[in-house]
Design a protein that fits this description.
Glutaredoxin; globular; disordered N terminus
Length: 257
């Protein structure tokens, strides 16, 4: 996930998921989480993982290079032998993702989701060059990406055929903290999301923190219209589900439906 630009005023932070406006604008690529898509896998299909990273992304380095990281573990499996890893490096976390960061053959991904990649690490899964799904956040690889890759590769090795993909629905939180400073129990956030929430707690008011069930988040503090800024920023990175405001100023306003 992206680090907030803490030296700017007002302060803001890119998060790790949802943008309802984006999901709604791309109904074919990213339908709502209640629907499923069917992909036709051929025996000669190419399966790519487009990995978005930056040189100063600590969580990216952990995923890609640590001996106990998810990629090191996955690369030892038979499934990985049928998967091609394509790296997109945007230089630094402070940079917005740009179309030219992608190789020419993958710039359609930027066109489909121009904000995706502002939060890292992030991945696209492609089947014969076409998007199957995408996810971001350090905990999403094992939870979301690997099961899809396993299904694609197994279908391919069996001679091909249809593969259905439906986005999983994360469980709803059973309770919501009443104390805005209760970081550990903020729903949906992974480790770097909680780190970002701690930074938001130090931001000046007015401030707001938005998040999504997919783990995406975005915060704004120090001036302007923080609620709208946080929602707009969060939903710009949304994958399957829209963002909501979790906390505003010094109060938790998130409600369980």
């Amino acid at each position: 996930m992206k680090n907030p630009v803490s030296n700017f005023s007002p302060q803001f932070h890119f998060s790790a998921h949802p943008w309802a406006s984006l999901a709604l604008s791309l109904p074919l690529l990213f339908p709502s989480f209640v629907s499923a898509r069917v992909f036709e896998v051929r025996p000669d299909s190419r399966i790519d993982v487009v990995y978005l990273t930056a040189k100063d992304c600590i969580y990216c380095k952990s995923w890609r290079y640590m001996r106990v990281g998810d990629w090191a573990r996955f690369s030892e499996t038979k499934i990985a032998q049928s998967v091609n890893l394509v790296t997109v490096d945007k230089g630094t976390l402070r940079n917005e993702i740009k179309r030219d960061d992608y190789a020419p053959e993958h710039r359609n991904l930027y066109d489909a989701a121009p904000k995706f990649g502002n939060t890292l690490p992030a991945w696209w899964v492609l089947l014969d060059g076409k998007p199957v799904m995408r996810a971001l956040g350090e905990n999403r690889w094992k939870e979301k990406i690997e099961p899809v890759l396993e299904n694609l590769v197994r279908t391919k090795l069996k001679g091909g055929g249809p593969m259905e993909y439906a986005a999983s629905v994360p469980p709803k939180p059973t309770s919501v903290p009443s104390n805005v400073e209760d970081v550990e129990n903020v729903p949906y956030l992974s480790g770097n999301g909680k780190d970002s929430y701690r930074r938001w707690l130090n931001a000046r008011v007015p401030r707001a923190f938005a998040l999504s069930p997919d783990g995406v988040f975005y915060w704004w503090g120090g001036g302007g219209t923080p609620v709208q800024k946080a929602l707009d920023g969060c939903n710009a990175n949304a994958v399957d589900r829209p963002c909501v405001i979790y906390a505003s100023d010094r109060e938790v306003i998130f409600k369980i439906d």
